[in-house]
Design brief:
The protein has about 220 residues and is α+β, with helices and mostly antiparallel strands. It is built from five helices and nine strands. The strands form three sheets. Strands 2-1-8-9 form a four-stranded antiparallel sheet, covered by helices on one side. It is globular and about 45 Å long. The N terminus is likely disordered.
């Protein structure tokens, strides 16, 4: 029996899509992130960090509108022959209202400037393709606030601040084995969608892998 499917309608600036450009950790670190977020969902119903694939955001929630080919081309040009770099994982830290694996610094405590430059350069490369979409605001590179991290517990805790300390203790008690670092050599573009970005979008967001680049 043959099945016919309706053609996927073309994307346009009014569609509920956002894009993220992420540094993907190594497989073992990805697994550690997933173990933690799965346990937080199972124990506390926290879903926001686990709604994404494990990643360190370079730029996120980017409103590119319909044609993503030019964005891919710009990133390909930027990342061609760009060297990979070492990323240090300092372990579980508080960040904002939540918890992360802190991957912003080198083992000696200095800022990982290779990581910072990658985020800044990715932001500059995609900036010409942003279109006006203000709910929510895009997560662009901000040199005053950007800090490399892998989210473990995030937006849910705005609504449950009473769980903050308990969740932090629970994450640490899990004792998940995670590497002390990884090679920063994989950049990935994802498309995300939600019917209501202005609300608790982490309950409805879906995502789709678009493209992977491997650094030299």
């Amino acid at each position: 029996m043959s099945h016919t499917h309706p053609a996927k309608r073309p994307l346009d600036a009014g569609d509920p899509y956002r894009y993220g450009v992420y540094l993907r950790p190594d497989a073992r670190t990805c697994r550690a992130v997933t173990v933690v977020t799965d346990q937080l969902r199972a124990q506390y119903g926290l879903v926001s960090a686990g709604a994404f694939p494990p990643h360190a955001t370079l730029v996120g929630s980017q409103p590119f509108g319909g044609d993503i080919a030019d964005v891919e081309a710009a990133l390909t040009t930027l990342l061609r022959d760009r060297p990979a770099f070492d990323v240090h994982n300092a372990g579980v830290r508080e960040q904002g209202i939540g918890y992360v694996y802190d991957v912003a610094e080198r083992p000696d405590g200095s800022v990982n400037q290779d990581f910072v430059r990658l985020a800044a350069d990715v932001d500059a490369a995609v900036a010409p393709f942003r279109v006006p979409m203000h709910s929510p605001l895009s997560n662009d590179y901000d040199p005053e606030h950007w800090r490399g991290h892998l989210s473990l517990a995030s937006h849910d805790l705005y609504g449950r601040p009473d769980l903050h300390d308990e969740v932090g203790a629970f994450i640490r008690d899990l004792g998940v084995d995670v590497p002390s670092g990884f090679r920063g050599d994989t950049v990935v573009l994802y498309r995300t969608a939600s019917p209501d970005w202005s609300g608790r979008w982490w309950h409805t967001m879906t995502w789709e892998h678009v493209r992977t680049w491997t650094l030299a």
